[in-house]
Amino acid sequence: MQAIGQALALALSLVLSGDGDLLEIVGLSLRVSLSATLVACALGLPLGALLAISRFPGRNAALIVVNALMGLPPVVVGLIVYLHLSRAGPLGFLGLLYTPTAMIIAQTILITPIVAALSRQVLEDLHGEYAEQFRSLCLSRTQTVGALVWDARYSLLTVGLAGFGRAVAEVGAVIIVGGNIDHLTRVMTTAIALETSKGDLPLALALGIVLMVIALGVNALVQGLRMTATRQAYA
């Protein structure tokens, strides 16, 4: 117990003093996860909107696939990306393996289905409420999507935050394609796993504290956005 207490004290000291290695790892984690979230939203939101307002043959099958992909095993995604980016793979000539870009690709594949499925549900529910009004106004599909996205903006921001929370906590895929290389591809989750196995509990605990603070911050933002959306609905 005494050793754990000392490790926790050292961890708090690292966080409060702004340790250079700690800040580097946190900064890379945020950069990779935010980049993946932005790309996933750029891909997932239009897909979710298409599935929400369109009716076409095979739509139910598409919904099943998108919902199923929400549960993609991270290590499988990491393996698939690794095989494509390795020297023997079709994209090996790009030299992206064991780089932050490879980690962004893996995280994007993981969270795009989450963004698409959640945004589809949000927009489809809203479209059901306004469908008659949209038809009476003779709005085009683009205008309909624009109106739905604007009206659901707080809920869609919540979707984006959910995707970011999933990305920043990911370890399986990023350690396969990133390699956990010091000063290059080491992010919070992979560093926690490595430092714990090495017995360096202070750094692992410090990163765990930062990760928990980020998770709490994301949840607080989600709750705040939900409250704002509720007030807007009843205003």
UniProtKB/TrEMBL annotation:
It is found in: Cell membrane. The chain crosses the membrane at residues 33-54, 61-85, 97-118, 156-181, 201-222. Residues 26-222 form the ABC transmembrane type-1 domain. The keyword Disulfide bond does not apply. Pfam families: BPD_transp_1. GO terms for cellular component: plasma membrane. PROSITE patterns: ABC_TM1. GO terms for biological process: transmembrane transport. The keyword Repressor does not apply. InterPro entries: ABC_perm_TupB-like, MetI-like, MetI-like_sf. Keywords: Membrane, Transmembrane, Transmembrane helix, Transport. It is a multi-pass membrane protein. Gene3D superfamilies: MetI-like. Belongs to the binding-protein-dependent transport system permease family. This is Tungstate transport system permease protein. It comes from Tranquillimonas alkanivorans.
